[in-house]
Design brief:
The chain is built from twelve helices and five strands. It is α/β, with parallel strands linked by helices and about 300 residues long. The protein starts with 12 loop residues before the first helix and ends with a helix.
């Protein structure tokens, strides 16, 4: 379910209340950054904040007691259909590697147009780590002195770097979830116990709710029982079937599980320094593969043949 359609906010009420309080006191800055791991619910919370503000004068307005959007309110329907006049979304376009400067320019044109009402306007920019140099610089210019009654909310995957100058312009909320909070959120969304659906060997305590939900959905799609896989057998399964070639989530999942694999080996090893050296060298190869757009297949086959079989 897309974040704009998720009517219930769960596990992030502390952050929501902090921003709500700033708005109610008329002290909310016009540049906010929500920074945290991908899949932690940052975008969902952004839509809830925006709905809380935009629906204040509407029927069926936001329910602040239950942290819930009323699906009957006008703003929810318009946001869901990407047609709200007081909302503008920038995100990574399919098949593109970067948010391009043309997208920023189109947004600037939107901000320069007159508003039809006195209600705040929101610019939501998701995946800001995918801004390229030109689009970052163009964005910096507009957010330094935004037009009146316009608020920017930037969503940042903190596993990736962004321009320090961009971060310094914003009030940053660092979104962190404990493993218990992650499991509770997953149990709520799945309506069943996450730990009954996945082999304990596949549990990564640093995974986000989004990571686990995507993993469960992948298992259902491929009609596999995730309780039957160990970490090693699941890595074999993912690499041998080449799922990473078509699905970025699977590529990221393999890399996450490679890191978990090294952690487990480190904990059991009597030669910890050797494991650390191997880990650092392979992590460098992963980073180079991502940075220079090298062949993933060679990387994963090397891991399988030299390390997973070792």
């Amino acid at each position: 379910m897309h974040p704009s359609e998720q009517i219930q906010l769960y596990g992030l009420d502390k952050y929501f209340n902090e921003i709500k309080k700033l708005y109610d006191l008329k002290k909310m800055p016009n540049k906010i950054m929500l920074s945290g791991k991908k899949g932690s619910g940052k975008s969902t919370m952004a839509y809830h904040i925006i709905n809380y503000i935009l629906s204040q004068s509407e029927e069926n307005k936001y329910d602040i007691e239950k942290f819930s959007i009323n699906s009957l309110n006008r703003s929810y329907k318009l946001l869901k259909n990407k047609s709200h006049p007081n909302f503008y979304l920038i995100d990574l376009i399919d098949e593109k590697k970067n948010i391009e400067i043309s997208q920023i320019r189109q947004m600037i044109n939107y901000t320069n147009k007159s508003s039809f009402n006195e209600i705040p306007r929101f610019i939501l920019i998701d995946n800001i780590e995918n801004l390229n140099k030109n689009s970052s610089n163009a964005l910096l210019k507009i957010i330094e002195e935004p037009n009146e009654n316009i608020f920017f909310i930037l969503i940042h995957n903190n596993n990736k770097r962004i321009l320090p100058t961009l971060k310094s312009r914003c009030l940053t909320f660092k979104i962190n979830l404990s493993f218990k909070q992650t499991v509770d959120i997953c149990n709520f969304l799945l309506n069943e116990n996450l730990l009954n659906l996945i082999n304990n060997d596949l549990i990564n305590y640093y995974s986000t709710p989004g990571d686990f939900i995507n993993l469960i959905n992948f298992g259902k799609e491929k009609k596999i029982d995730l309780k039957e896989f160990t970490l090693v057998s699941f890595l074999y399964y993912l690499i041998d079937n080449n799922y990473y070639k078509k699905d970025k989530f699977i590529k990221d999942l393999i890399i996450s599980y490679i890191e978990l694999y090294f952690l487990k080996r480190y904990q059991l090893s009597n030669t910890k320094n050797k494991i650390l050296d191997i880990y650092y060298n392979f992590t460098k190869k992963i980073n180079n593969t991502n940075t220079f757009n090298l062949d993933d297949e060679s990387l994963f086959l090397e891991f399988k043949s030299k390390l997973l079989n070792g």
